[in-house]
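Form 7-S
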Amino acid sequence: MFNLYGLQTLDLNFNNIGEIHADIKKLKGLSSLSISNNQLNNIPDEIGELDQLDVLYLTNNLIKTLPLSMARLPIKELHLEFNKLSSLPAAVLQLKALEELYTGNNLISALPKELSEIKSLKVLYFESNFVTDLSEHVTTIVENLRAKGGSVKY
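Output:
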């Protein structure tokens, strides 16, 4: 599989995958990667070398954090629903092109102020988490998204 250099879309859903091999970095043309409904605990640093990746589905795994190397990716749509995240990983907060972020059904207790610095963000779903502090910066994030015609679900 890792010799398919021109591959643009890869769907590995429902395969009981417990680990992504570091050779994922060889798939340089990949723009969409879906590894949902597996048994992933972590994502390798090498994913940060997929510089065309703009859609990433990691829904329904066992992920607690993401590698900082992801911060340099042009990800526009990120699905992290049904994982074990207790907070938004630093890499997510540095995704400059991020437009849609789905984090529902995790263990997240607070939305960091840095989330408001992602100017491209249009969709934010963080329902069924443990966010109880809807402080001023969270209210500002929600209001800004709605003012831009965005979608928020909490």
